[in-house]
Amino acid sequence: MTKTRLYPIYLILLLCFLTTRISAQPESVKQAAQAVFTLTTFQEDGTILSSSHGVFVGENGEAISPWSPFIGAHKAVVIDTNGKKLDVDVILGANELYDICKFRTVASQTFSASIAKQPSAEGEKVWLSDYSVKKPKFKALSISKTEKFMKDFTYYIFTTKQPEGLDGCPFLNQQGEIIGFLKHTKKKDEVTATDAALTNTFELNGLSMNNTTLRQTQIRIAMPQDIESARLTLLMAGQKNDSAKYAAYIEDFIRMFPEAVDGYTAKAQNEVNARNFGNAVACMEEAISKVENKDEAHSSYATLIFNKVIYQPDTLFKDWTLEKALEEATTANSLHPQPIYQHQQARIHYSLGNYQEAYNIFNSLTQSSIRNGEVFYEAAQCKMQLKAPREEIMALLDSAVNVQKPLSAISAPYILARGRMYDTNQEYKKALLDYNLYDSLMNGRADADFYYLRYKCETHLRSYQQALNDIAHAILINRREPLYYAEMASLQLKVRYFEDAIKTSEMCIAIAPEYADPYIIKGIALAESGQRESAIETFNRAKELGDERADALMEKYK
Fold this sequence. Notes:
Layout: H1 2-23, H2 27-32, E1 36-42, E2 48-56, E3 62-65, E4 75-79, E5 85-95, E6 100-105, E7 125-129, E8 138-142, E9 145-149, E10 153-159, E11 170-172, E12 178-184, E13 190-194, H3 227-239, H4 243-256, H5 262-273, H6 277-290, H7 294-311, H8 322-335, H9 339-351, H10 355-365, H11 373-385, H12 390-402, H13 412-424, H14 428-441, H15 448-460, H16 464-477, H17 482-494, H18 498-511, H19 517-528, H20 532-544, H21 550-557
Helix pairs in contact: 3-4, 4-5, 5-6, 5-7, 6-7, 7-8, 7-9, 8-9, 9-10, 10-11, 11-12, 12-13, 13-14, 14-15, 15-16, 16-17, 17-18, 17-19, 18-19, 19-20, 20-21
């Protein structure tokens, strides 16, 4: 009787045991749970911006997580299942629409999970893993619905009560592979997951730094893997106002491409900017010893020295001279003779005052593969310094203008130089033709000095209305230059626009009250328009400022 009563109890216990074994998660799922981590992002002031989860997917600290926590973030850290805190180093890619990203931490970690190679199907059983330093919990779920997107990827929908605090935790298939991670929806009984395989398509290039999505975070993107894209990234990073990020990109470039000169040169230039010239020397010596193309390293060193001597001549570092720059450029050319290195030598010779040597090289380059307007123009500059006949100089400037057809903005500087030469030789009509052509090629975007230059030329030709237009244009570009106002007022006075001359003089006085010329011009304009008492007062002010013309003018208009 006792045995008969116990039989159902044994049966129930057996059924419970079998049910537990059937619903228990596979060992592969337990192992994959070790790759889950917490993610915390921070604002610039160090306060917490957002918290979520993610999962490691690579042996070198690569990980995936939701993208939204990174928007506006200046820093991020993860804590793995061993309780170890790791800083997020770089972003490897992101998709804002599907709220998913890939990044790398500063150090590698011991365990990672794999991203599923094949999508899961509707009705398939998967496990949602939480994060735990001790023992993670799992929830078995069946996929309620799948939707295809971007042709090759799957969007998963689960019908279940939304769990709290599990955002970004992974869904794992039978093999312990990640199919996606949890994301809440507006429906309380539904959660979703974007196919984690989407992150395998993320690829950085030289323009990724300007990617609209990636620009939403202040955490830097990774250096691209191919050298040309990496060079572009390095160049663009140097143009940003973030020295810390730029220094990190430089170190990445040197680590990834130790035989390329670009990283060493960028690092040395950073040291020069900080006036750490000894460190810059060490950078370039390391480059010369390690890079594959030694000529490039010597040439880059020459450029670094040349720019320092020309643009930072007030420094106390005496080891870098133009002679040292010439030595490095000469070494580069001896290792691999190229017109570009010869051009570098010529520029240094010119700066040393060796005009004949510089001219000889520039002139030879006019028949080389870099035959262009620049070398003709530089040859013309040498001829000017050598006091060569005007005809020789003009011939070189003509060649600088005409070597590249059709004319474009590239030719504009040489046309301006030729115009200035005509102007200096008092060939004002020819000068004005070049000035007009220059203005046309620049699409009206020349600087204020150019319009002042053309104004002076036009006054010589008595083209007063055009001259007034140009000096007004110069003022429009630079409203704080008193000379332009004084010149305009002087011309207005000359063509008897007395009221205009008075107003322009007053504008000049307003920005430069200690400048005597506008008082003289205003005084004459007042006198010529019949306001002699006011004119005398204005001349007196010019006299107080030390202008010797004031007494004679007061006597004249007395």
